[in-house]
Specification:
- The complex is a heterodimer of chains A (279) and B (310).
- With 279 residues, chain A is an all-alpha fold.
- Chain A has ten helices and no strands.
- Chain A has helices spanning 35-47, 50-73, 81-109, 113-119, 123-160, 170-194, 197-221, 223-232, 234-242, 248-275.
- The longest helix of chain A has 38 residues, at 123-160.
- The termini of chain A are far apart.
- Chain B contains 13 helices and 13 strands.
- The longest helix of chain B has 16 residues, at 161-176.
- Chain B folds into two domains: 2-211, P-loop containing nucleotide triphosphate hydrolases (Rossmann fold); 218-309, no CATH class.
- Chain B has a six-stranded mixed beta sheet, sandwiched between helices.
- Chain B has 310 residues and is an alpha/beta fold.
- Classes of the chains: A mainly alpha (279), B alpha/beta (310).
- The interface between A and B is large, with 45 and 55 residues.
Chain lengths: 279, 310
């Protein structure tokens, strides 16, 4: 009988790796981390927590609920694609910015940034990857929402026997997508500025629900503000996208307010977040 | 190899790390020892680029950390085992780290086995993990890229005695295979058993630096006698500095032989005479912690003195 080499016993709670190989023997090439990989990782991180998963799932769920509500409650004459798109699109304007906020703030609130920024010691690249991932999620979510709305339109009109109406132009659809991407960008900027999940979320809700009322009241009583509003109120300009922008002046108003409400906070937020310590 | 040169970090007038320089050599475990708030974590954070130094530099094998193309493959880092997304499973956290480094998904299971996290545990969310399990997961994240350098901040925190033993064996083995290990601790005894080299930091400054043997050698002598006051007087007369150490014992900055001769000349019978073996290091460490510790150290010292008088 020949000697049989027995593998070393593996006992639990001791080092199981009994090899004497030198650690970290250098591979010849040491490639860096490509941007595509970072975007993939950031996309994965948006889905792999229970809260993240349900937040994204809620986009589909609310789209279905909104579609069902239109079929059930809207008068037959209103069963057009525009109604469905509006009903499906509204929850998006709230959920998508939350997705953008959490993608940034969780690194601080959950302190996972300690690992993220150690594995990739260039935060600008991490934020760029997050930005791309957020926009991708936004665009895909919008496609899903418009798809659900279209199904609802077909289904609803079949049930009621009313004519099928596609009263929404492609440019309007694209404008709604743009409006949502801008809302996500504002959320992203808020996340970078505040770097705290509750703080940034409250900030966005104030922007989306409190400020419009205040601006409306102010505009009703102060003529100067009513005149200036389209040029200073991003909410107002963003809202015009959802109703379809037609004039060059409206585009100019959007550009001006986007600069002040999105680009400026984004620049400041990036500057701060690149320096901020993850404690 | 880790090289730290004159690292300094100042926060609004408060100097957290003050001109810290040391090296951590390959094939050795370097213990970074200091009380809480001494600047250990800030130094380690500056090493890996999480905190920008006010001045000074830190390099890993001659490269700035930020210049490493894929840092996880060169340096394994565990700064705080609790700093993980509570909603992710242990396996997912490891997968995200592996994906960032460009490693295959199979490496995740291998590494989970290596740190003794069972598949069931790995599929639980980190929110339900004990600190010990988080430490194992953190070690797994640090090791998965097969790095040459390990930087670990208080890795033994939360581990049970078997876990501490496991960690010690793992780091020893890692250093024996040519790796560089830098680990911090605020517990002298914990680091004494594992480290080859010691860097002691207090209030942001390095107060001692050398091999463990050197630092222990310099620790002097412990001498015990029934008439400890007479002994102290005799030593004082001989120009030897002595401090109260424990019940009827003194710690003396002199060779045991020299102390024995002084006692013999003064005709004082000794009950114990031995090399201090780290007692001096411990004393220095206690002095360092005196300011930050809630315990009243002066009282402890006084008790020792009274014990000596009694």
């Amino acid at each position: 009988m020949t000697a049989v080499a027995t593998p070393p016993a593996r006992t639990p709670d001791t080092v199981t790796d009994t090899s004497t190989a030198e650690v970290g023997v250098r591979r010849h090439a040491r490639p860096g981390i490509p941007m595509t990989r970072l975007v993939g990782v950031e996309l994965r991180k948006m889905f792999d927590t229970r809260s993240g998963f349900w937040l994204l799932a809620s986009i589909g769920i609310t789209a279905l609920l909104a579609t069902g509500a239109v079929i059930l409650f809207a008068p037959d004459a209103s069963l057009t694609y525009d109604s469905f798109a509006a009903a499906v699109g509204f929850p998006m304007t709230v959920i998508l910015p939350m997705v953008a906020i959490l993608s940034v703030t969780s690194e601080w609130s959950q302190r996972s940034g300690l690992t993220t920024f150690t594995l990739v010691p260039h935060r600008g690249r991490v934020f760029a990857a997050k930005g791309v991932a957020v926009v991708l999620v936004g665009v895909v979510s919008m496609a899903v929402a418009f798809g659900v709305g279209a199904l609802g339109n077909v289904l609803g009109t079949t049930i009621t026997g009313t004519p099928l109406v596609w009263d929404m132009s492609l440019t309007h659809v694209l404008q709604i997508v743009l409006g949502n991407v801008l809302g996500m960008s504002l959320g992203f900027a808020l996340g970078l500025l505040v770097r705290s999940s509750p703080g940034a979320m409250v900030g966005y809700l104030v922007y989306a629900f409190v400020l419009p009322t205040l601006a409306g009241v102010l505009a009703a009583f102060q003529q100067w503000f009513a005149d200036a509003q389209p040029w200073v109120d991003f909410n107002f300009a963003q809202g015009q996208l959802f109703n379809e922008i037609e004039s060059a002046e409206q585009w100019a108003q959007l550009a001006v307010t986007t600069t002040g409400w999105v680009l400026l906070p984004l620049t400041l937020g990036l500057w701060l977040a690149r320096r901020s310590e993850v404690k | 190899m880790i090289t730290v040169q004159s690292l300094t970090k100042t926060y609004a007038g408060f100097t957290a790390v003050d001109d810290v320089s040391f090296t951590a050599e390959p094939g050795r475990v370097t213990g970074f020892l200091g009380p809480n708030g001494a600047g250990k974590s800030t130094t380690l954070r500056m090493l890996v680029g999480l905190t920008t130094p006010t001045s000074g530099s830190a390099t890993i094998d001659g490269h700035r950390y930020a210049d490493l193309p894929n840092p996880g493959r060169d340096v394994g880092v565990l700064l705080d085992a609790s700093a993980q997304h509570a909603g992710r499973t242990g396996r997912e956290i490891l997968r995200v780290a592996a994906a960032t480094m460009g490693l295959p998904a199979t490496s995740v299971d291998e590494m989970l086995e290596r740190v003794s996290l069972t598949p069931t545990e790995a599929n639980r969310r980190v929110r339900h993990y004990s600190l010990g399990m988080r430490q194992r997961l953190g070690i797994a994240t640090a090791l998965i890229g097969d790095p040459r350098v390990l930087i670990l901040d208080e890795p033994a925190n939360g581990l049970d005695p078997a876990g501490i033993r496991w960690m010690r064996d793992l780091l020893r083995d890692y250093a024996n295979r040519g790796g560089t290990v830098l680990l911090s601790s605020h517990l002298l005894h914990e680091i004494e058993v594992i480290a080859d080299d010691l860097v002691v930091i207090g209030r942001g400054r390095i107060v001692a630096h050398g091999t463990k043997e050197e630092l222990l050698e310099a620790a002097g002598t412990v001498v015990r006698a029934d008439s400890v006051i007479r002994l102290a007087d005799a030593l004082h007369a001989a120009g030897i500095h002595a401090t109260a150490y424990a019940d009827r014992a003194l710690r003396v900055d002199a060779e045991p032989g020299h102390v024995g001769r002084v006692a013999h000349t003064a005709d004082i019978p000794l009950t114990e005479l031995r090399a201090a073996d780290g007692a001096g290091l411990e004393e220095m460490f206690l002095e360092l912690t005196a300011d930050t510790q809630r315990e009243d150290l002066s009282r402890t010292t006084r008790d020792a003195r009274e014990g000596a008088v009694a």
